[in-house]
Write a structure and sequence with these properties.
Oligomer: single chain
Number of strands: 0
Order of helices and strands: HHHHH
Radius of gyration: 17 Å
Strand content: under 5%
Length: 120
Amino acid sequence: TLSAYATFDWRPIYLGYVALFLQGALLISIGLFASALTENQIIAAFLSFGCILGLWMLGALGGIVGDTTIGHILSYLSFSEHYERLIRGLFNLKDILYYISGIAFMWFAAHQAVDAYRWK
C-alpha cells in the first residue's frame, strides 16, 4: 500500500465518499420528484436533467453576479460549492444540512405530488 511510503490525510477521502453519497441521494431525489410530476418517463428524465443542470449553473451565475447578497444566495443554492468543500476535506455542518434538507424537501414534494394525483 502507499501508506508505507507516505502519510495520508484520510479526512478528504472519507468526506469525499460522504459527499458522493449525499450528492447522489440529492440527484436521485430530484429525479424522484420529477417522476412524481408526470407519467411519461422521457419527460421526467428531461425535467430532472433540467433541474439538476439549473442547480449546477447557479454557482456560475452567483460568480457572475459577484459579491452581492443575490450572488451569495445563488452560490449557496448551487450544490457544486457544497460538494467541492466536502471533497477537499472541509467539514462544515451547513454543507451536510444543505444536502439533507434538499433530500427531505424533494421527498416531501414528491409525496405531495403523488397525493395530489391520488385525489384526482
